[in-house]
User: Fold this.
Amino acid sequence: MTDPTPPNGLRGAVDLSALVQRAQPSQPQAGTAAGDRLVFETDDAAFGSTLELSRTVPVVVVLWASWSEQSTALVATLEQLVRARDGRLVLAAADADRSPQLMQAFQVQAVPTVVAVVAGQPVPLFAGVQPDDVIEQVFDQLLELAAQHGVSGRVEAGGESGDGQAEPVEEPLPPLHQEAYDAIERGDYEVAASAYRTAIAQDPRDTLAVAGLAQANLLWRLHGKSLDGIRNTAASASDDLAAQLDVADLDLSGGHVEDAFDRLLTLFPKLDADGKRAVRERLVELFEVVGSDDPRVVAARRRLTNLLF
Assistant:
């Protein structure tokens, strides 16, 4: 049995490139009520809405498989424990066979594996089946971590649905955040970025809007580009700034945070003043995607400062 990993910090970006070519959200899995926001299914295509929900309430993500008895047992346990938290946590179940990009982004070695997403950033939790009291302890630590990052919303149950289950009602987003969320859902990243910029202009302390803008811009830049095309262009043009910026975006979107930072910081001293400004601006934006308190960001920011001065 794998020991749980205490959630002691936000751990970088999930594979946002999986959201570039967006499909329709999948149907709820058997046993999960349609419209249920406490326990629901997600996958590569539908994970954009899961990311956005994580800005309001911590999302526990279980990577599972129907052919695994341990998986099905753990999903049932997690559902019971999450529902007992009265909407302070939600559970997203991702079928491993239909979510290869999530499996790669979260570096899943075996199912079941449980991670969390807080403010768009992943937090490793544990792999394999764990006793209920251990899971409860992990959930307590997760809620503490989420509160430290300003994620303390609640998904509350409303009236009864047709099948007798309570129909949860998500705490509404601020209007501009909702506008950005809706735009991302339909793949209109330019409009999403504009909404986040307006939110920041109205409240420069809106850190969620700052992070949202950085992620919307990243999705916008990757939109319509293929993974192989980006990597092949960068490999054949190591001094092409635009190509290197693209592959850094791709690396970070796939969770290869240190690779993305190292690529740009290694290129930085070779550039002219305009090129250095472009790299610095891109790095600052990528720092927002990962999170300013992430140790990889702290190290990269220190390295950038040394290069600047």
In short: The chain has two domains: 16-170, 175-308.
